[in-house]
C-alpha cells in the first residue's frame, strides 16, 4: 500500500502527488480568499487519504459532515454535548482511532473556540499508548488562532490559541499532524503558521497576504502578483510532502459535497404581473391560522451512545441513576464528601478549569441520587480547594484558622496554601513542588516557586531551607510549621 495520494494536476496535466507519511511529520498550511477552493482542496485531501490515516476535522461551518455519508467518519454535533462529554469523546477518539468530524455550526463564536480547545486538548493529552498518527484538519484556522484580540472574549481567545499552538508546535511527537486552512494569513497567529513546512496558496488579493504567501513559497515580491491571478481551485504548492519547488496545482474532483451545494444562478419564477405579485406580498395573514409546523430536528446522539460506538459498552461517563427523594442533611454531606474524593482521585481533575470541574461535580451529585446540587460554584471552589488539601470535612473546627488566613489569597492559591497549612497543623513533612503544582493546577516548577514567593510577600507563610536543602514552611498566624522535607 502506497502512502502517496494524488491531489490534482500541474499546468502540463501531470499528476501532483502528496506523501501522507511526510505530511504527518511536516504539517500543512492552506491559504486562499473565500471562493478560492480551500474547502474543495481539504475535501480532496480527506477523501484520498481516508483509507490511509485517521482523520479528525474541526469544522466550524458544518461543511464536512457529509464525509460520513460515504466514508467511515462519525459526525459529532458539538452543540449537543457538555464540555465534559466533548473532552471524553476526544480521549476515546484517540484510543480507538476513529475518524470524526466535529461540527461547531450550532455554536456561537466564543463557544466554538472553547469547544475546539477542549477537544484539541483532549487529543493532545491522550496517554502515550494512544499516540497513533492522525491528521487534524482545522478549517477557518484564523478563528481559532487569531493574530490579535477581536470581538471574542479574552478567555476564549487564550484557550483556543494555546490549543492550536500545542497542535502545531508540539503535536508531531504525539502523532498529531496539523492541517490548517485560513482565508487570510495576516489574521492567523504567526507562531501557528510558522510550524507548517508544506503550503498550498490559493487566490488572494490583499498585498499583505500576497507578501506573506510569497515569503512562505520562497518567491520574490514581484512574483507575488501571480497569486492574485490564480483561478478557483488552483493553488501554488511547495513542501517536502509535495514538491521541492513551487508548482501550480489544479485540485482534482471530489466524491462528496457540502449540504448546501454550490451557489449558482437559478431561473426566476415566471412573471405573474405586478398586481398579482403585490397581492401575494401584502395579503392579510389569517390570524387564526396555526403557525407553520417546524421540521423536527434530528435527535442528537447521547454522549454515552456515541462513545459506545467507538469503544463498546465500557463507558468513561457513567449512566445517570434514577432520581430519588432528596436525602437528609447528614446524607447530603456524606454524598458531597464521596463525590469530592472521587474527583480528587481522578488525575485529570488537577488541570481542569473551575467551570468544567463544577459541571463534573453536578453530574456526580445526580449519580449519588441528589436531586438538587448542594453547592453553588463559589462554595464548590472553596470545598474543592479544601479537598485537594485533604480537608474533606468542611465542619471540622481544626480548619477554621487556616481558612481565615486563606481568605486573603486569590481563589486559585487557596488549595496549595491549605495543603501547606494542613501539613503544618499535623507536623507533617512539607509538601513537595509536585504536590503543590497539582493543587495549583500547573506542571511548572517555576510557577510553584513564584507562588511561594507571593504567599511569603503577603505574610501568610514563612519558608525556610536548611543546609541540607530541605524545606519547611511555617504559617505564623497558626503558630505551626511543617517538618523539613525535600522540596
What topology does this entry show?
Elements: E1 4-9, E2 15-19, H1 20-26, E3 28-31, H2 38-49, E4 54-59, H3 67-70, E5 74-77, H4 83-96, E6 100-103, H5 109-124, E7 134-138, H6 141-144, H7 154-170, E8 176-182, H8 190-193, E9 198-201, H9 207-217, H10 225-228, E10 234-239, E11 243-251, H11 274-281, H12 303-311, H13 329-345, H14 354-367, H15 377-388, H16 400-406, H17 414-426, H18 433-440, H19 445-457, E12 462-465, E13 470-475, E14 480-481, E15 485-486
Parallel strand pairs: 3-8, 3-9, 4-6, 4-7, 5-6, 7-8
Antiparallel strand pairs: 1-2, 1-11, 9-10, 10-11, 12-13, 13-14, 13-15
Helix pairs in contact: 4-5, 4-12, 5-7, 13-14, 13-15, 15-17, 17-18, 18-19
Keywords: ATP-binding, Nucleotide-binding
Organism: Sphingobium algorifonticola
Protein name: ATP-binding protein
Descriptive notes:
With 487 residues, the chain is an alpha/beta fold. It is built from 19 helices and 15 strands. Strands 2-1-11-10-9-3-8-7-4-6-5 form an eleven-stranded mixed β-sheet. Strands 12, 13, 14 and 15 form a four-stranded antiparallel β-sheet that branches. It has three domains: 248 residues, Rossmann fold; 56 residues, no CATH class; 95 residues, Orthogonal Bundle (Arc Repressor Mutant, subunit A), CATH 1.10.10. 40% of the residues lie in helices and 15% in strands. It is globular and about 85 Å long.
Amino acid at each position: 500500500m502506497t502512502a502517496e495520494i494524488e491531489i490534482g494536476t500541474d499546468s502540463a496535466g501531470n499528476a501532483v502527488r502528496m506523501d501522507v507519511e511526510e505530511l504527518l511529520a511536516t504539517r500543512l498550511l492552506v491559504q486562499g480568499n473565500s471562493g478560492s477552493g480551500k474547502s474543495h482542496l481539504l475535501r480532496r485531501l480527506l477523501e484520498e487519504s481516508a483509507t490511509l490515516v485517521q482523520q479528525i476535522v474541526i469544522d466550524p461551518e458544518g461543511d464536512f459532515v457529509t464525509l460520513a455519508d460515504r466514508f467511515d467518519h462519525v459526525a459529532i454535533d458539538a452543540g449537543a454535548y457538555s464540555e465534559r462529554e466533548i473532552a471524553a469523546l476526544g480521549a476515546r477518539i484517540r484510543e480507538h482511532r476513529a475518524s470524526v468530524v466535529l461540527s461547531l455550526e450550532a455554536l456561537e463564536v466564543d463557544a466554538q473556540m472553547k469547544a475546539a480547545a477542549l477537544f484539541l486538548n483532549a487529543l493532545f493529552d491522550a496517554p502515550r499508548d494512544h499516540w497513533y498518527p492522525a491528521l487534524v484538519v482545522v478549517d477557518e484556522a484564523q478563528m481559532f488562532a487569531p493574530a490579535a484580540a477581536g470581538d471574542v472574549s479574552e478567555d476564549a481567545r487564550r484557550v483556543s490559541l494555546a490549543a492550536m499552538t500545542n497542535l502545531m508546535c508540539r503535536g508531531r511527537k504525539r502523532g498529531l499532524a496539523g492541517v490548517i486552512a485560513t482565508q487570510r494569513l495576516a489574521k492567523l497567529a504567526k507562531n501557528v503558521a510558522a510550524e507548517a513546512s508544506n503550503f498550498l496558496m490559493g487566490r488572494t488579493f490583499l498585498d499583505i497576504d500576497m507578501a506573506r504567501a510569497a515569503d512562505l513559497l520562497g518567491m520574490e515580491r514581484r512574483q507575488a502578483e501571480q497569486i492574485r491571478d490564480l483561478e478557483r481551485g488552483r493553488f501554488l504548492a511547495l513542501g517536502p510532502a509535495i514538491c521541492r519547488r513551487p508548482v501550480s496545482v489544479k485540485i482534482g474532483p471530489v466524491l462528496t459535497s457540502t449540504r448546501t451545494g454550490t451557489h449558482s444562478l437559478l431561473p426566476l419564477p415566471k412573471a405573474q404581473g405586478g398586481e398579482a405579485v403585490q397581492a401575494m406580498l401584502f395579503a392579510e395573514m389569517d390570524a387564526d391560522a396555526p403557525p407553520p409546523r417546524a421540521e423536527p430536528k434530528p435527535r442528537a446522539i447521547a454522549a454515552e451512545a456515541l462513545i459506545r460506538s467507538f469503544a463498546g459498552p465500557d463507558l468513561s461517563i457513567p449512566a445517570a441513576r434514577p432520581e430519588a427523594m432528596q436525602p437528609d442533611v447528614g446524607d447530603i454531606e456524606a454524598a458531597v464528601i464521596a463525590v469530592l474524593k472521587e474527583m480528587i482521585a481522578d488525575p485529570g481533575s488537577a488541570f481542569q478549569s473551575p467551570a468544567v470541574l463544577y459541571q463534573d461535580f453536578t453530574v456526580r451529585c445526580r449519580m449519588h441520587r441528589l436531586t438538587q446540587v448542594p453547592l453553588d460554584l463559589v462554595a464548590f471552589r472553596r470545598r474543592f480547594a479544601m479537598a485537594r488539601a485533604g480537608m474533606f470535612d468542611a465542619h471540622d473546627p481544626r480548619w477554621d484558622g487556616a481558612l481565615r488566613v486563606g481568605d486573603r489569597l486569590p481563589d486559585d492559591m487557596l488549595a496549595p496554601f491549605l495543603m501547606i497549612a494542613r501539613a503544618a497543623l499535623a507536623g507533617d513533612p512539607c509538601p513537595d513542588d509536585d504536590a503543590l503544582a497539582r493543587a495549583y493546577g500547573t506542571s511548572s516548577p517555576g510557577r510553584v516557586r513564584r507562588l511561594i514567593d507571593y504567599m511569603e510577600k503577603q505574610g501568610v507563610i514563612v519558608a525556610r531551607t536548611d543546609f541540607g536543602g530541605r524545606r519547611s514552611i511555617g504559617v505564623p498566624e497558626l503558630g505551626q510549621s511543617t517538618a523539613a522535607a525535600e522540596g
